[in-house]
């Protein structure tokens, strides 16, 4: 009752990274509130899920194991969760802001009448003062996300409806293993027929075709990112050459994407991806807060900028002051000599 619940999205039988990130954050929130952290997974052949999630601080794991639940289809997953959450009554329910999470979350919240904050980048516990009612409500979930095209950061609270629901962007929560790999918590196996009607299985997936992502930006150890200061698409293309020599990936600011220098799937920041590479090259990037939010946890930050007072330099470990169209070709030449 009134614990924190995290939906564990599955890729086959593997718990996807964003769900593990949510478990890490959920453990932190649960400790703050003094409650338990629970996880729920729906799919087929789920015996390996327990060993995947318990190291991240889960106290109790709920499994709905049925061949018909894999791969994901909307109706049976939504029906099972709506009834299950109605029984468990968690105070917080979290999902990843993935294709599945964005499909499932709104259906569950609508059925429960709970409300939902989408695409959060941070979660905290705090108080809310209701001036109309003259009362302060404690221990609410602060659901923090970009708003108005990323120009502001909004903090949203849900004082009176439960559960407090949010989908959370992938990569914004660090993974934290807090228990030994062999730790075993409580596992509850639920009978799917008690939660899902046969009519909910009306849709069947006959065949799946998966397309590999065009970049590996999320897990790249080295990221070479460019901003509007690259000046042109031709200049920006030099970053691909540099990234190739470094065995890294290319990222971009929102301004560079808007200018047409590269594609949106490479955008880093509040309205893009969050990355934590070992080395981050910031090329022609001024350092707006929206971009810094997506890369500030990088291991080493190297700034290449003609402006010695650029805000990005304040968080950079190394600063190269110079024009990017002059500095980057020199770097490429030096790395090519070493390869």
Write the layout of secondary structure elements.
Layout: E1 4-7, E2 10-11, E3 14-15, H1 17-33, E4 37-43, H2 49-53, E5 60-65, H3 74-88, E6 92-96, H4 99-112, E7 117-120, E8 122-130, E9 135-147, E10 152-156, E11 164-168, E12 186-189, E13 222-226, H5 233-246, E14 249-252, H6 254-258, E15 279-283, H7 289-292, E16 300-305, E17 318-321, H8 324-338
Parallel strand pairs: 1-4, 1-6, 4-5, 5-12, 6-11, 7-11, 13-14, 13-15, 15-16, 16-17
Antiparallel strand pairs: 2-3, 8-9, 9-10
Question: Any overview of this molecule?
Answer:
This protein folds into two domains: 4-201, 3-Layer(aba) Sandwich (Rossmann fold), CATH 3.40.50.620; 217-338, TPP-binding domain (Rossmann fold, 3-Layer(aba) Sandwich), CATH 3.40.50.1220. Helix content is 26%, strand content 27%. The chain has helices at residues 17-33, 49-53, 74-88, 99-112, 233-246, 254-258, 289-292, 324-338, and strands at 4-7, 10-11, 14-15, 37-43, 60-65, 92-96, 117-120, 122-130, 135-147, 152-156, 164-168, 186-189, 222-226, 249-252, 279-283, 300-305, 318-321. A seven-stranded parallel beta sheet has the order 7-11-6-1-4-5-12, with helices on both faces. It has a five-stranded parallel beta sheet with strand order 14-13-15-16-17. The protein has a three-stranded antiparallel beta sheet with strand order 8-9-10, covered by helices on one side. The chain starts with a strand and ends with a helix. The relative contact order is 0.11. The mean pLDDT is 92.
